[in-house]
Amino acid sequence: METGIGRRIAYWRERRGLTQADFGRLMGQSRRWVQDLEGGQRQTDPRLSVLKRAADILHIPLERLVTDLASATPGQPLPSDVAALVDALHTPTRAGQVVAIEDLKRRVMFCCQAWASCHYTAAARDLPAVLADAHGTAAASEEAAALLSRAYQLTASLLFKYGVLARTPAVLAAERALTAAEASGDPVAIGAAARRVARGLIHQGRHAAAADYAATTAATLRPDLESAGIAGLSTLGMLYLVAAVGATGGGRSSESVAAATELLDEAGEVADQQGEESGDFTSFGPTNVAIHEVDVLLRLDDAWSAVEAAQRIGPAAVFGLGRERQARHLITTARASALTRRREEAIRDLLKAERLAPQEVARPSVVRLVGQLLELVPSPGPELRGLAQRCGLPA
């Protein structure tokens, strides 16, 4: 059997929220039969009749199983302001002005606040000029170098939201953030920049390296960060959280579950030490640790446990987080609900996220989730169709 057909059956089965056992029962076969089918180990199957039945069960045209259309996702161009920010990173650093530290700080904080409010294009619009002037001022003081690092950290975080098209410049921005942070000598800036570098490793598929790098950095900087107040503790805790996410990259195994759990526990200890008050726009605290547990469980292919973990978090606690963190959590719970066949709940959470942060829902990975729900729901209602249309999808 052509292995591509097995891969496409697996793709659509997962998109429909079906386990291999579920799909096997619907096909009148065993889970092992499905494993062999998807793994390309059934050389005489599937016959055309088998493919037709599989297509009917998966609610897709037969052509989707015999062509690679299933894995194709339409390219989404970057918003113009985000594209301009990418261009600014790939051109020689523009010689900016030497500006007053307080003025530079005000402009960097404006971009950070725009980011925290999920106005990503507004932050992207200002960042090229901010980066240029921060470069022009960085040699003046360690504080200016720390502000340059913060501007690059924000650039990296923003670009990571736009998927493959912005991944390489995002990694570049993270590396520049770390260089500037090391020049500043500020452990909070170094830890915060290192977190973006770890995120870059995750986005490149180097999860184990990300987990090791973030955890090692946390251990190395811990004494300095613990003595740096709320901002230092928030930075330390977030390093452990990104390490926990990195630990999930190898898929579900006893080792990955143990490693991720240990890192979440480390973050929890820091959160207990800090309390709910967070620093540096991280939203770090006990609630953020609980939210990351949901994300980690989902990444470890345990969507049911992710749903249960999300239900243990009080709405008031989530409401106390920053808007960007709230919206991302809603999208995570929507993914978990979709995978556990709770599709109405998934639509509800996506609509909540859109009301809170339209630009977060417009990101490529979220648009793909909306498209999957559009295909999964037998008779999409006006709310889902409207959301899909606002995401640029045919509905």
Automatic annotation (TrEMBL):
Signal sequence, start to end: none
SUPFAM superfamilies: lambda repressor-like DNA-binding domains (SSF47413)
Organism classification: Bacteria, Bacillati, Actinomycetota, Actinomycetes, Kitasatosporales
Domain of life: Bacteria
Alphabetical list of SMART domains matching this protein: HTH_XRE
CDD domains for this protein: HTH_XRE (cd00093)
InterPro entries: Cro/C1-type_HTH, Lambda_DNA-bd_dom_sf
Residue ranges constituting the HTH cro/C1-type domain according to the UniProt record: 9-65
Annotated Pfam families: HTH_31
Name of this chain's protein: Helix-turn-helix transcriptional regulator
